[in-house]
Specification:
The structure is a single chain. By secondary structure, the protein is of the alpha+beta class. The protein has 2 domains: about 5-115 and about 180-235, no CATH class; about 120-170. Helix content is about 15%, strand content about 30%. It has 4 helices and 15 strands. The protein has helices at about 70-80, 155-160, 200-210, 225; strands at about 5, 15, 45-50, 55-60, 70, 85-90, 95, 100, 105-110, 120-130, 140-150, 170-175, 185, 195-200, 215-220. The strands form 4 sheets. It has a 4-stranded antiparallel β-sheet with strand order 13-14-1-15. A 4-stranded mixed β-sheet has the order 2-3-7-8, with no helix packed on it. A hairpin with a 2-residue loop joins β7 and β8.
Length: about 240
């Protein structure tokens, strides 16, 4: 199957702090790798534009980063393609000054890094080596950059633990999903990217039901450097 990152780049919500929340309250934050029950956590209200039609996907405020606000019908569609990999919690949404019902915030509880085909995927590595002397007022580093690959997830994790310094950076460059992956909705956390990843079949269904307004679908295997920018491939699909 072909896979796409779901980019909710146009429909952006901003936080409205709820003054009734107390210091001791549990408040939902950004997406975590650790799975936990968030049913007792409170969510600060997410405000969207008062003008225009309601959309099915919104990017929440930064305190809820790596999550997605979805409508009830988007939630139902996702669950029909894959169930129990994402928990959905009711999300308070303010449209202008009026509350609207039927929106949920995602919490990924199953991560699918094992479905990454590491033999075909590539990662960008930026390594730094400290070259300044101890008495120098400002640290100086020797920086090297390269595209690297790994044998599997274990090799990927071992490299992070044994080969990387805290100043080193590693980003996904080209991610390929194994051909026998059965899932239409994927959440990849360790290897990145942090977006929701969907199959071409689910993408087609979202477009068919006109649930794609304000979102873009970036082919997973295309590096960000080739997708964006003034001469990027993105312009072939989106103006």
């Amino acid at each position: 199957m072909n896979y796409f990152e779901l980019h909710d780049i146009y429909n952006v919500a901003k936080i409205v702090y709820d003054r009734e929340f107390k210091e001791e309250d549990l408040i939902m934050g950004s997406q975590k790798r650790v799975v936990e029950d968030l049913s007792l956590h409170k969510i600060h209200t997410q405000q969207i534009k008062a003008s225009g039609k309601l959309q099915d996907f919104y990017r929440p405020s930064s305190n809820l980063s790596m999550r997605v606000i979805v409508s009830t019908r988007a939630k139902s569609l996702f669950e029909s393609f894959r169930n129990e990999n994402i928990r959905y919690y009711p999300c308070p949404v303010l449209r202008g000054k009026e509350f609207v019902e039927g929106y949920w915030i995602t919490d990924k509880v199953i991560f699918d890094d094992e479905w990454v085909d590491f033999t075909k995927s590539e990662f960008f590595l930026r390594k730094r080596k400290l070259i300044s002397e101890e008495n120098e007022p400002r640290a100086r580093y020797e920086v090297s950059e390269q595209i690297i690959q790994f044998k599997d997830l274990c090799d990927f994790n071992n490299f992070r633990e044994k080969e990387m310094w805290h100043m080193d950076e590693r980003y996904p460059y080209r991610i390929i999903i194994k051909e026998d992956c059965p899932h239409h909705v994927l959440s990849i956390h360790t290897t990145g990217p942090r977006y929701l990843i969907i199959s071409e079949e689910l993408k087609t269904e979202l477009q068919k039901q006109k649930m794609d307004k304000g979102v873009e679908f970036k082919p997973l295997e295309i590096p960000d450097e080739e997708w964006g920018g003034p001469n990027g491939i993105r312009k072939q699909f989106y103006k």
